[in-house]
Structure formats: structure tokens, C-alpha cells
Amino acid sequence: MSQYVLNAEVRETLGTGASRRLRRADKVPAILYGAGKDAVSLTLEHNKVIQMQEDEGFYTHILTLNIGGESVEAILKDIQRHPYKPKVTHLDFQRVDASQKLHTKVPVHFINEEAATKGGNTIAHHVTEIEITCLPAQLPEFVEVDVAAIAVGATVHLSDIALPAGVVSVELAKGADHDQAVVTVNAPKGGAAEETAEEAAE
């Protein structure tokens, strides 16, 4: 797993005007909270943030913030971007406590889609990420779904996905009626396979 390390400075001057000045100086205002400690306002280097945010792992890995010589583990909870410029305008980080469960989202990686679309089948993605809870040490980088293993006309739901040990789906924990559809393999339009799939679904 890649290492994501960001150097940060404690931000003493707060407010909209101060944040605007920081952004003009190629800095990004941020906040760090959680683990029963007071929230801390931070400043990060914009160029480093822009570089890291292009990597999917930045949103799911446990990050290291170097704050005045102290290393703090955290996860990214929110990222705000400029509406049309390639700029990050604010970051929210949550401290990680090894003994406390995280509540976050991880991406779904769909594999073997080329095999599943042979013969004109199409794939419908219903979700691109799954909301989970787990201890920091159990946090997966992503959840993988093998589309080639899905029968034509079938839909994979959250309950069909084998999550890593210790990882719990937030939606499924609410009950069986929250068993969301994840991906469907559809037969070609008007094909005999599609009619068979529709009959099986009735």
C-alpha cells in the first residue's frame, strides 16, 4: 500500500479572508477532528494535495499528517474543490484511533468486464462505492466484484459481496430491505437471452 504523507502547519488566523489569502499563496485550509480531541485548523501545500488527490488511494487509505513534528494518522472525510478551476479549496480530516471503528466509503472495482460483455451483453453499475465500518487495521483499499462470474440477467446485491474480515456494510446493517443492487449484467436488447432472463425474474 502506498504511503500518503502530508506536511501541515497549525493555522492560527481563521475566517473567510484568511482562507482566501492562503489560497492565493497556494495553500489549502483544512481541519482535523475526531478521536475525542479538539479540532485543529491546518494549512497544507496545494501542489502536494493536488498531486495526491489524483490517486484513488488518497480517499481510502489512512494518511499521515506531519504537524509540527508530530505524526497523526487520519482519513480524508471531505474535499471541496473550486467550481471550475483545478483547485482544492478545503479538506476535512478525521483522526484515526486504532481502537475505534471507522465509518467511511470504499470504491468498488469491477473486474473482467470485457469477458462479461461478449455477445453484446451490457453492464449496469448501480453503485461505485460502499459505505462501511471497520477498525483502522481492517480498512480495505477497495472492494472487488468479478463481473464475469455474474449470470446474464442477474443482479449482484450487497449481500452477495464477500467483504474482508471485520468489515461491515452500513446499509446491510440496517436490515434486509437495504440490500442495495450493485451491478447487473443485461442481455443484448431484444435477444433471446434477455427474454429468458425476464422470465426468470418474474
Automatic annotation (TrEMBL):
<dbReference type="InterPro" id="IPR001021">
    <property type="entry name" value="Ribosomal_bL25_long"/>
</dbReference>
<dbReference type="InterPro" id="IPR020930">
    <property type="entry name" value="Ribosomal_uL5_bac-type"/>
</dbReference>
<dbReference type="InterPro" id="IPR020056">
    <property type="entry name" value="Rbsml_bL25/Gln-tRNA_synth_N"/>
</dbReference>
<dbReference type="Pfam" id="PF14693">
    <property type="entry name" value="Ribosomal_TL5_C"/>
</dbReference>
<protein>
    <recommendedName>
        <fullName>Large ribosomal subunit protein bL25</fullName>
    </recommendedName>
</protein>
<comment type="similarity">
    <text>Belongs to the bacterial ribosomal protein bL25 family. CTC subfamily.</text>
</comment>
<feature type="domain" description="Large ribosomal subunit protein bL25 L25">
    <location>
        <begin position="6"/>
        <end position="93"/>
    </location>
</feature>
<dbReference type="InterPro" id="IPR020055">
    <property type="entry name" value="Ribosomal_bL25_short"/>
</dbReference>
<dbReference type="InterPro" id="IPR029751">
    <property type="entry name" value="Ribosomal_L25_dom"/>
</dbReference>
<dbReference type="InterPro" id="IPR037121">
    <property type="entry name" value="Ribosomal_bL25_C"/>
</dbReference>
<comment type="function">
    <text>This is one of the proteins that binds to the 5S RNA in the ribosome where it forms part of the central protuberance.</text>
</comment>
<dbReference type="InterPro" id="IPR020057">
    <property type="entry name" value="Ribosomal_bL25_b-dom"/>
</dbReference>
<keyword id="KW-0694">RNA-binding</keyword>
<feature type="domain" description="Large ribosomal subunit protein bL25 beta">
    <location>
        <begin position="101"/>
        <end position="189"/>
    </location>
</feature>
<keyword id="KW-0689">Ribosomal protein</keyword>
<comment type="subunit">
    <text>Part of the 50S ribosomal subunit; part of the 5S rRNA/L5/L18/L25 subcomplex. Contacts the 5S rRNA. Binds to the 5S rRNA independently of L5 and L18.</text>
</comment>
<dbReference type="Pfam" id="PF01386">
    <property type="entry name" value="Ribosomal_L25p"/>
</dbReference>
<dbReference type="GO" id="GO:0003735">
    <property type="term" value="F:structural constituent of ribosome"/>
</dbReference>
<keyword id="KW-0699">rRNA-binding</keyword>
<dbReference type="GO" id="GO:0022625">
    <property type="term" value="C:cytosolic large ribosomal subunit"/>
</dbReference>
<dbReference type="GO" id="GO:0006412">
    <property type="term" value="P:translation"/>
</dbReference>
<dbReference type="InterPro" id="IPR011035">
    <property type="entry name" value="Ribosomal_bL25/Gln-tRNA_synth"/>
</dbReference>
<keyword id="KW-0687">Ribonucleoprotein</keyword>
<dbReference type="GO" id="GO:0008097">
    <property type="term" value="F:5S rRNA binding"/>
</dbReference>
